[in-house]
Design a protein that fits this description.
The complex is a heterodimer. Chain A contains three helices and no strands. Chain A is mostly helical. By secondary structure, chain B is α+β, with helices and mostly antiparallel strands. Helix content of chain B is 40%, strand content 18%. In chain B, the strands form six sheets. In chain B, strands 1, 2, 3, 4 and 7 form a five-stranded mixed beta sheet that branches. In chain B, strand 16 and strand 17 form a beta hairpin. In chain B, helix 10 crosses helix 17, helix 12 crosses helix 14 and helix 17 packs antiparallel against helix 19. Classes of the chains: A mainly alpha, B alpha+beta. At the A-B interface, helix 1 and helix 2 of A face helix 2, strand 2, helix 9 and helix 18 of B.
Chain lengths: 119, 573
């Protein structure tokens, strides 16, 4: 019985040491992962900042007033003018193509047989 | 006497010579100790399992000085997603005076980088016994790096969000401005704060960029065109100021709104200059003849006046000391359409009198002329309405004097007359037609709306609004040349010119108003709205119609078409 208790005790001690080691390893891993997460979060934040700055810059370059001034300034090279109402149409205003009329058997000069109607 | 102690049984066993007894005693004690240790280890194991099972609790974030200043604001976008306002991170310089070792050394070092800092103020701040003092807010990254390189203990930087408007003065009065702490103090910026952002920030939620951007109904391209044309008009006609508004009649959305002179919201000090005020919604004016639109609509809607009726414009009207005449009067009996296209004061006055003063007051109240325009912009002026309404007042109100309203009042009321008779409160946020119908209320009948469309179009085809035509886009509208009050009496020289228009008149989608304030009489066109404000409207419509998807059509006689369509509709009912 004593020997059994001894074995149990030694086993328990070994198990405790193993558990402690595992817990320590887990904790270390968690710390490292936490640090990596914080770094990534910071990087994401920095990227968001950069995107916002770029969006602001793009908006600045895309302003209608700026584009109008550029067109005015380079009008000799660009030769752009404002669109007028008679340049705008709608697809419904274009009539459908007329059906091709059937070609009668009227032979052309020198032709032997009537040609097929164009499809 | 032999003295012998009776030892406790467990110890007595020790002295027992029997071989088995000590072992049994040990057994008991060992078992007990083993059980105690086992229970301790079991508890530890149990706690480990418990920790493994409980979900992660978020860590408590301690509030730092950085958090209290980096109040983020949402981006403001136009209806197509173009950025109108956004945040830029800048560095703000602060000092912790308790940590500063040598004030003079710190000041000398700072002066090399920031010579513009006032030495007395800075010395006072650094010598004080406080924990935190701002030195200079919103510095450039270059200056931040230089100060950082100085290495002064007790000086540091906090990143702040600075509001940036890429469009500059494009939508200045709509955007409003923010103060140094990024709180809205005017315009839509203030409305966003009042609408919940301020509460969010107070609770500590609006820290970084995760806020959803705010979309407006404004179209940046149309806004630019309106601003460009109003500025061009003000310059061409030598005017003091100008206003341009475009509103969607079916949804009540404001597509563009510009008031010149304006300011650059990136420099908020400009907003405080009185001349840069928002004349579109915060300034009240006697609009003059554009008001005849509403008087005519009132008369037609009452049922007492029809398009074929006539009124006498031969003889001037006299009320006590005041005489009312027509400018370039025709001196004959005029039909209702003629009264409109010749802009006859006498005809309009007699038309209004035939309907009655109470009916006139009730109608103007119905179309919102007696109250502030309900909308999101905080700068909304209340109209100046006469307190007493004798006949002379009722008559002058009918052609737009004695009552002062904002240009926005005119736009919203005209929109109701053009869309079939429904008054829709204006909004600066996107709104669908269905949502607009929920807040709309009927103010005139559809027949009256048809008749007003006819009159508007007739005025541009044959009347004073000819210059407002944009070929293909079927513009209709009413001119207004209002004499301004100077030193208590009406001045012939100072006018307020306006043109209240809608297009396309076969089925109106947008109302456009342009106001030209005090055009120079010596310039070409003089002071008549038929020259100044109409030119601005024509320029605006010509450029914005393709952007807004209005198909060009070239009907030969649109007013007759509108009349035929309206009569057919009346007969069908």
């Amino acid at each position: 019985m004593a020997r059994f208790i001894n074995a149990l005790g030694i086993m328990t001690v070994i198990v405790m040491i193993a558990v402690a080691a595992v817990v320590y390893a887990l904790k270390k891993n968690a710390e490292v992962a936490g640090y990596a997460v914080a770094q990534l979060a910071q990087q994401i934040d920095d990227e968001h900042e950069r995107i916002a700055t770029l969006k602001a810059e793009w908006s600045l370059l895309d302003q209608p007033a700026r584009l109008q001034a550029l067109v005015e300034h380079f009008k000799d090279k660009l030769v752009l003018s404002a669109i007028t109402a008679d340049q705008i149409g709608h697809i419904s205003e274009i009539p459908m193509a007329p059906k091709p009329a059937a070609v009668e058997a009227a032979p052309a000069e020198g032709a032997a047989a009537p040609k097929q109607p164009a499809r | 006497m032999r003295f012998s102690l009776r030892l406790p049984a467990i110890l007595r066993r020790r002295t027992d010579k029997s071989a088995r007894a000590p072992l049994e005693a040990m057994h008991g004690r060992l078992l007990l100790a083993g059980l105690v240790f086992a229970s301790v280890y079991l508890t530890i194991a149990g706690r480990l399992v418990w920790f493994g099972l409980t979900p992660d609790r978020p860590s408590v974030a301690y509030l730092t000085a950085q958090d209290s200043v980096s109040a983020a604001r949402p981006d403001i976008l136009d209806r197509n997603g173009e950025t109108l306002a956004t945040d830029i991170r800048t560095a703000s310089l602060y000092a912790e005076p308790r940590k500063i070792i040598d004030v003079d050394e710190a000041m000398e070092a700072l002066a090399t980088v920031l010579p513009e800092l006032d030495t007395d103020t800075v010395r006072r701040k650094l010598s004080s016994d406080t924990g935190f003092q701002w030195l200079k807010r919103e510095v450039t990254p270059a200056i931040r790096d230089k100060v950082h390189a100085l290495g002064i203990p007790g000086i540091g930087f906090l990143t702040e969000n600075k509001r940036f408007y890429p469009g500059g003065p494009l939508a200045a009065h709509i955007m409003g401005s923010v103060n140094i702490d990024n709180q809205g103090i005017a315009g839509i910026e203030k409305h966003i704060d009042d609408d919940g952002l301020a509460d969010l920030q107070a609770l500590g939620f609006a820290k970084n960029r995760e806020l959803e951007p705010v979309r407006l109904s404004i179209d940046a391209r149309v806004q630019h065109v309106v601003r460009d044309e109003v500025i061009r008009g003000v310059e061409t006609f030598g005017a003091k100021a100008g206003v341009g508004i475009v509103m969607d009649v079916e949804t009540g959305e404001i597509i563009a709104m510009s008031s010149i002179p304006d300011f650059d919201p990136n420099d908020p000090a400009q907003a405080l200059e009185k001349d840069n005020m928002n004349r579109a919604t915060a300034g009240v004016f006697e609009l003059g003849s554009v008001f005849k639109t509403f008087s005519t609509a009132m008369a037609l809607d009452s049922g007492k006046v029809g398009l074929n009726d006539s009124f006498d414009a031969r003889v001037p009207l006299r009320f006590g000391g005041r005489t009312i005449t027509d400018f370039h009067g025709k001196h004959r009996v005029l039909t209702v359409p003629e009264i409109f296209i010749f802009s006859s004061n006498l005809g309009t006055a007699r038309m209004a009198l035939s309907v009655g003063i109470d009916a006139e007051k009730e109608f103007l109240d119905r179309i919102g002329m007696f109250k502030r325009v309900p909308m999101e912009l905080p700068e909304s002026a209340g109209p100046i309405v006469p307190r007493h309404w004798p006949q002379v007042t009722a008559v002058t109100v009918s052609f737009g004097h004695s009552i002062s309203v904002t240009p926005m009042h005119a736009v919203v009321a005209a929109s109701a007359l053009m869309n079939g008779g429904l008054y829709i409160p204006p909004t600066f946020y996107p709104r669908t037609h269905e949502q607009a119908m929920k807040v709309a209320r009927r103010v005139v009948s559809p027949e009256t709306s048809d008749k007003m469309r006819y009159l508007f179009r007739l005025n541009v085809e044959k009347g004073s609004g000819k210059r407002a035509e944009a070929p293909g886009y079927r513009v209709g509208g009413k001119t207004g040349t209002a004499e301004k009050v100077v030193n208590g009496s009406y001045s012939g020289n100072k006018n307020l010119n306006s043109f209240l228009a809608a297009f396309p008149m076969d089925k109106p989608r947008y109302v456009v108003l342009s106001v030209v304030d005090e055009p120079d009489p010596s310039r070409a066109g003089g002071r008549t709205a038929g020259f100044t404000a109409t030119t601005v409207v024509s320029g605006i419509v010509r450029r914005i119609a393709p952007m807004l998807g209005v198909q060009p059509k070239f009907p030969p006689d649109l007013s007759a078409e509108i009349m035929a369509e309206a009569s057919a509709r009346t007969r069908a009912q």
